[in-house]
Automatic annotation (TrEMBL), chain A:
A single cellular component GO annotation: SAM complex
Mitochondrial outer membrane transport complex Sam37/metaxin N-terminal domain segment(s): 21-143
Name of the protein in question: Mitochondrial outer membrane transport complex Sam37/metaxin N-terminal domain-containing protein
Family (UniProt): Belongs to the metaxin family.
The UniProt record lists the keyword Transcription regulation: no
Coiled-coil zones: none
Every Metaxin glutathione S-transferase domain range: 226-288
Keywords from the named record: Membrane, Mitochondrion, Mitochondrion outer membrane, Protein transport, Transmembrane, Transmembrane helix, Transport
Transmembrane segments: 375-396
Lineage top rank: taxon: Eukaryota
TrEMBL record, chain B:
InterPro entries: Metaxin_GST, Mito_Protein_Transport_Metaxin, Thioredoxin-like_fold
Cellular component annotations (GO), alphabetically ordered: SAM complex
Domain (Thioredoxin-like fold): residue spans on this chain: 57-151
Organism listed in the record: Aaosphaeria arxii CBS 175.79
Protein origin, superkingdom: Eukaryota
Database matches in Pfam families: GST_C_6, GST_N_4
Listed name of the protein: Mitochondrial outer membrane protein
Residue intervals of the Metaxin glutathione S-transferase domain: 204-272
Length: 437, 280
């Protein structure tokens, strides 16, 4: 049976919108013969995690696990890392984790946190690959996750939607500028505002540099250097990162992350600029990898979901996309119901599947907790709930049919301090004030 | 006058409630003394845990690093709420006068130690430094979080160390235990949609393998003359994992088993323990 690789759909001319998915596509495309695998653009949230490799009944999720699975399954023939020595293998592991920890926040900032990029590029890319109902849940969820991941960096200023500068005709000077523009006279407004001559004219150079966009820029440059410098040093003058003259799984992963930095045409292209201007060697390397791993041809959304029913008009796509039938009404309804249940405030805690997969075969030494057990807490809660319900029930009953001389209050009033102590004196306060008839 | 009674009708407190509240306060405690301006004669490092070696990896890392730098300090048990940055450890430097010194959060501890140490430690400029550090801070830390807070160890390690000392009230303890679990879970979910215990453990094992072969036959990582921050970071995890008596012992020993077989890392840990914590 052919291998099936399920990924998030294509975007930005790349096979997927997700870095690990791109890496997995690149890996399979360069190891497995074309007729032995199929690429499926998927968005089923019940599958939990992409990239997902389906081989018959066995499922493997995540790039590293897929690489490991392919190595075990085929005893080396689908393995890019077979020639690596121990040191290279260690470097591969270390840099893979380094990429995950430093490149993820950069992509988060560039594609999700930055309000301008998110609204201009990311959302529309998701619209193309997700059915309408998932557009309300998946992109905002991923954006929230990106915000959480990058929260400690203090770059939330990127998140602010900057007011459109064309409309800020408040104040005399701007009014003058806009009238000049309206009259067709080239003003010194928008067109020249960023020129070197006008730099810091209003606030001085210090004021200019401390304005949020520049302050953020310094931080962003530092962050991208943190990733790109070690990577560039590892690359050196070699063709591929680990220097065997052929790509390894690390190259695939690097391509996954760097492609998402370079190829989306975002309005705030600081990340792309950082790579292109300061690390041209890395830029060349990514271009080379693209050709080697997925081919230079732009991947179109229509490759995965053909819009036309005339196959002869379609070019053969460079990747072995498996054409999927339009999802039926039953499937759509079920997915919508699941999305609603999973995102509804209280219901989600009941219906959302657990996120922890415990060890399957584990012998655990027994250890007893000194905290009250869940059973105890539930019993206590049950009793409290019963007591409260009983009290209110009694109160309601009493209100409907009041009896003369309620026994509780009488009892408290008659024996103010003998049996009840402090509470008795409290109750006596009430008793004194109540008209006892 | 009419309006006054009108208002009184709106705002009047029921007589029984007024009599009840007139009984307060029930007890008046004596006033606390003002804190006396105290002179810090030595550097004080605020960490988790009473014993000389903290049971929290990030605290232990800085304890080790300060020892490596030859800076004397006394460790005081504290909690996250005491820290200006919200996380332990932090350090109150010693001062000569009575003016209180500014606390140093853990993010600036390295620079502070370099400026205040007689023998400042040079960090390795190896290109692989950052990458291997990410193995520790990413892969091993995540496995640690799972192992200590979410696996069976949560009752045998996290509970006696982090939950029980905070309060004697069972309900407060329950809430804190739940918060702790949720915090660990959210931290793990940051980078993955699901928490797969097998995957976390196998990644940690691979990471330890890499570190083992990175150390090789050298005394310290990256072939340095003196141990540095990287050694401290490794030691923070290896020492705690090899500690039999952490909390009330390891219930889920998977993560611990992976490190026990790594002879060089075990030797590295023992070396640090002998050379720098012999008095402890």
């Amino acid at each position: 049976m052919a291998l099936e690789l399920h990924v998030w759909g294509p975007a930005f001319g790349l096979p997927s919108i997700d870095a690990e998915c791109i890496a997995a596509v690149g890996y399979l495309n360069s190891t497995v013969p074309r007729e032995d695998w199929r690429l499926v653009a998927n968005h089923d949230t019940a599958l939990r995690k992409f990239p997902l490799l389906m081989d018959g009944s066995s499922r493997t999720a995540g790039f590293a696990s897929i690489v490991l699975y392919l190595r075990k399954r085929t005893l080396g023939s689908y393995d890019l890392d077979i020639d690596l020595n121990q040191k290279q293998h260690n470097n591969k592991l270390a840099f893979a984790s380094f990429l995950e920890s430093t490149a993820t926040p950069l992509i988060d900032l560039s594609l999700y946190v930055s309000a301008e990029n998110y609204s201009a590029i990311t959302t529309s890319s998701y619209t193309a690959i997700l059915p309408w109902y998932l557009n309300y849940t998946i992109p905002p969820t991923r954006r929230d996750q990106a915000r959480i991941r990058t929260g400690h960096l203090g770059l939330s200023s990127l998140d602010v939607q900057l007011p459109d500068n064309k409309d800020d005709s408040i104040g005399l000077g701007n009014d003058f500028e806009s009238r000049k523009r309206a009259a067709g006279i080239p003003g010194e407004g928008r067109t020249t505002q960023n020129s070197i001559l006008n730099m810091g004219r209003a606030k001085g150079i210090g004021g200019l540099l401390s304005s949020p966009i520049y302050a953020a820029r310094f931080k962003l440059d530092a962050l991208s250097n943190e990733l790109l410098e070690p990577l560039s040093e590892l690359l050196g003058n070699k063709e591929y990162l680990l220097g065997n003259g052929k790509p390894s799984s690390l190259d695939c992963l690097t391509f996954g992350y760097l492609a998402l930095m370079l190829y989306p045409s975002v309005p705030q292209a600081w990340l792309k600029e950082a790579v292109v201007t300061r690390f041209p060697r890395i830029h060349d390397y990514v271009t080379r990898l693209r050709e080697r791993l997925i081919g230079n041809e732009e991947v179109k959304v229509s490759d995965a979901w053909p819009t036309t029913n005339l196959p002869q008009q379609r070019q053969q796509p460079s990747l072995p996309w498996k054409i999927q039938a339009q999802s039926g009404l039953v499937y759509t309804t079920r997915s919508i119901t699941r999305e609603i249940l999973n995102n509804f405030p209280v219901l989600s805690t009941i219906f959302r599947p657990g996120t922890i997969i415990q060890d399957r075969s584990m012998v655990v030494r027994g250890s007893s907790s000194s905290l009250p057990s869940a059973l105890m807490v539930n019993i206590l809660m049950g009793f409290s709930a019963a007591a409260i319900t009983a009290f209110f029930g009694f109160a309601a009953h009493h209100k409907r049919s009041p009896r003369e001389g309620d026994w509780l209050i009488l009892w408290a009033a008659q024996r103010p301090s003998t049996g009840l102590g402090e509470a008795g004196s409290f109750l006596s306060v009430f008793a004194n004030e109540l008209p006892i008839r | 006058m009419a309006s006054n009674t009108e208002r009184n009708r709106w705002y009047s407190i029921p007589a029984p409630v007024r009599t009840l509240f007139n009984k307060f306060p029930l007890v008046t405690y004596p006033e606390n003394d003002l804190p006396l301006p105290r002179r810090n004669r030595e550097n004080v490092l605020y960490v988790f845990g009473e014993s000389p070696l903290s049971y929290n990896p990030s605290c232990l890392k800085w304890q080790a690093y300060l020892r490596f730098s030859g800076i004397n300090y006394s460790a005081i048990a504290s909690s996250n709420h005491a820290s200006p940055s919200g996380a332990l450890p932090f350090l109150l430097p010693s001062t000569a006068d009575t003016k209180p010194s500014k606390p140093v959060p853990s993010s600036r501890l390295q620079r502070w130690a370099m400026n205040n140490s007689a023998a400042a430690i040079e960090e390795s400029s190896d290109t692989r430094y950052e990458a291997y550090l990410s193995l520790l801070e990413h892969k091993i830390r995540r496995a640690w979080l799972y192992s200590v807070y979410l696996s069976a160890n949560s009752t045998s390690i996290a509970e006696p160390l982090y939950v029980l000392p905070t309060s004697r009230n069972s309900f407060v303890r329950l809430t804190i235990a739940r918060d702790l679990r949720c915090a660990a879970e959210n931290e793990l979910l940051k980078f993955s949609a699901i928490i797969d215990a097998d995957l976390l453990h196998s990644e940690a094992e691979e990471a330890f393998n890499s570190l083992e072969s990175l150390l090789g036959e050298d005394t310290w990582f990256f072939d340095n003359q003196m141990p540095g921050l990287f050694d401290a970071s490794v030691f923070a995890y290896t020492h705690l994992l090899l500690d039999d008596n952490l909390g009330s012992g390891w219930a889920d020993t998977r993560l611990r088993d992976t490190i026990v077989q790594k002879k060089r890392l075990v030797a590295h840990r023992n070396r640090i323990l002998d050379q720098f914590f012999a008095s402890a």
